[in-house]
Amino acid sequence: MTSKVGGVVLAASLALAAAPAHAAELGHAGGFTYVKKSKILGDTTSGTTSGEGVEAKCPDGSVPAGGGTSVSGDPLASYVSASAPKQRSWFSSGWHFDTESGKATAWGICTKKKSKVRVSSESLNIAGGVSGSFATPCGQDAAVSGGVRPQVGIEEWWLNTSSPVDGGADADEKPDDSWLSITWHRPGFFPPQDVSFDAVCMKDTKVAYKVAGIAFSTQQINKPKVHCPKRKNVVGGGPSVSGPASQSHVAKTAPLDDGDKNKVPDDGWQITVVNPSMAEMDVVVYAACV
Ligand SMILES: [Ca+2]
Ligand SMILES: [Ca+2]
Q1: Which residues, by Cβ under 5 Å, contact ligand 2, an ion?
Q2: Which end of the chain is more exposed for a tag (fewer CB within 10 A), N or C?
Q3: Distance 165 CA to ligand 2 centre (A)
Q4: pLDDT above 80 for 235
């Protein structure tokens, strides 16, 4: 649906109320089923904005272990605002402005081993013009995925960081302890709103974390990607970006199909991070692989 800015709250609540159908299956790898689902974002060349929530629902008997979100079209005008687990789906939202019609896509990475995964959540109340940041802990389990899900509004928000971090009581330096998400609540949307900061935690599993990126980037559009080790499959990933959350936004954080014969996005993670001011910043992409 296309709406002027004043219609944002209504548009968001309608999108959230829609019951999800099953997502399209992209294929299986390493015990995971990769799915995706897209929704059309309207033509906004007349100066409007258009945002949608979309859920990639896992096949019967499975739950999301990870997932991602992308918005098609010019990254400078495309924003990811939610990317997080929601019951049996991966929930995504995205919006764009002053651009031709495009789509918002939710990617889900589903497992039948329901007892291996759990979602850890914390809710923060975030006013307009303020960023929200929280590292949701996984305790003894490994943080393999996560993100944010604002309770209200699609076009009020953009995602800045969604990545695994080290920093628990463990002695290692693996980023397996928490999932850090940072979101920006745009000024002009004053009332504080609740945002769920989620981590997907995996039990008794050896996770390989891979990282790649661009240090001191002054590019407007940054598209780093990272590959999983051979014979491992990606279960989660996302961007870690330096600097204020108001300064840069994410247009894509999604699993990657690259370098093998199947068509399944099981090989790594890719991001698109936009830095309109071209201020110097580090743009890093993580992948969690099992
Ligand atoms: Ca650690
Ligand atoms: Ca592949």
Answers
A1: 257, 260, 262, 264, 266-267
A2: N
A3: 26
A4: yes
pTM for this prediction: 0.92
Residue with tokens 């990317």: 83
Rounded to an integer, what is the distance from CA 24 to the centroid of its chain?
18
Q: How far apart are CA 29 and CA 260, in angstroms?
A: 12
133 CA distance to ligand 1 centroid (A)? Answer: 19
**Which ligand lies nearest to the CA atom of residue 143 in the structure?**
1
For residue 44, what are the domain limits? 2-289
The number of the ligand nearest the C-alpha atom of 165 reads: 1
Residue 265 CA: which ligand is closest?
2
Residue 101 burial (CB count, 10 A): 15
Instruction: Say how many domains are in the chain.
Output: 1
Q: Which residues surround ligand 1, an ion (CB under 5 A)?
A: 166, 170, 172, 174, 176-177
CA 131 / ligand 1 centre spacing (Å): 25
Six-digit token pair at 160?
Answer: 């800045």
pLDDT one-digit tens code per residue, 77-102: 999 999 999 999 999 999 999 999 99
Token pair of 207 as six digits: 């996770």
Instruction: Tell how far the Cα of 161 is from the centroid of ligand 1, in angstroms.
Output: 19
The H or E element that residue 198 is part of is: strand 193-202
What does the radius of gyration of the chain's CA atoms come to, in whole angstroms? 17
Instruction: Read off the pLDDT of residues 176-220 as tens digits, 9 standing for 90 and up.
Output: 999 999 999 999 998 999 999 999 999 999 999 999 999 999 999
Contact 31, 59 (CB under 8 A): no
Q: Tell which residue, 153, 181, 162, has the closest CA to residue 52.
A: 153
E strand or H helix at 162: strand 157-165
Ligand 1: centre distance to CA 164 (Å): 10
Instruction: Using a pLDDT cut of 70, give the percent of the chain over it.
Output: 92
